[in-house]
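Notes to self after the call with IL:
- keep both proteins in one doc
- input above output, always
- annotate only the second one for now

Protein 1:
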Amino acid sequence: MSGGSTQLKGVTPNIMLPDIYAFIDRGERELEYPMPWDEISKASYSEFANINYDKLAKNSASRMKKNEQFKAVEERSKEFKSRKDESIVNLKLEKFRAEQNIGEIKIKNTKRSKKTLRILVQIRLKKIFLN
């Protein structure tokens, strides 16, 4: 709607939520030959006048700082980044498998956290927009 393409920059949301891949470089911009960013004329549209986006973002950030599930997702995100950047692999089979099992357990816990977050976000959005 703004006229800018999503290549290289992606879509910037009004409310940022923790993302398990937040610290990992991904997307088209990481490819060898990404398409250049481009822009066309802005679309004609009107925004919702009754939504205070700044207040909404501020309140959301405040809730996320207090919420253990949001903290867990951010922690896992940092952990995934660390594991991705790790270039040393244990050559002792038992230790390697143990490290892999720990990683799998953390991934399962993260999936549970993401599902819980989705439910919490849906409930909160319903409260915001239905009040």
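Protein 2 (the one to annotate):
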Amino acid sequence: MKDWPATVDRAANEAAVAALGRLELVAAVAANGTIGRSGQLPWHLPDDLKHFKALTLGHAMLMGRRTWESVGKPLPGRRTIIVSGTLAGIPFPGVELAPSLETAAILAAKCPEQRAFVVGGTGLYTAALRTARAMHLTELDSMVDGDTWFPQWSRADWRVETETFHPADDRHAFGFWMRKYVR
């Protein structure tokens, strides 16, 4: 029986590593790394929002407390897991709360048919970037003022699997690329 705790810890660590390796990041990022301003997106790109909905519908979304506060409610047809060490209680029925990214990833992995998307903010992106298997980035051609940024990452560690360009038009103030990066 002396080895039992080590066995449990090893199994828990293996589960956490596997769950963290399932993560996919989703973000819209300006050319200067901006992802937010005053708790909101600093742009309105309807086709990017459609892409976000199509990508995340039916799946788990992991988000930090501030991202949750900017969204303000669960998005229909998606599982919401808030990562926060300070949020006192579950703000809406059906929303799940996790104290760490690792715990949130394990919760998401309990439904293996669902993909697990990290949707913000900076701290969660930074933590997930080390183990994520994919990133779905909408990359704006322009620099935009903001107060929240996507973490720096090495393009050498990733390859573009798919990309689509969307030019600026009467509904989109900025041209942008929708790219899926994989390791």
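Annotation: The radius of gyration is 17 Å. The chain is about 30% helix and 25% strand.
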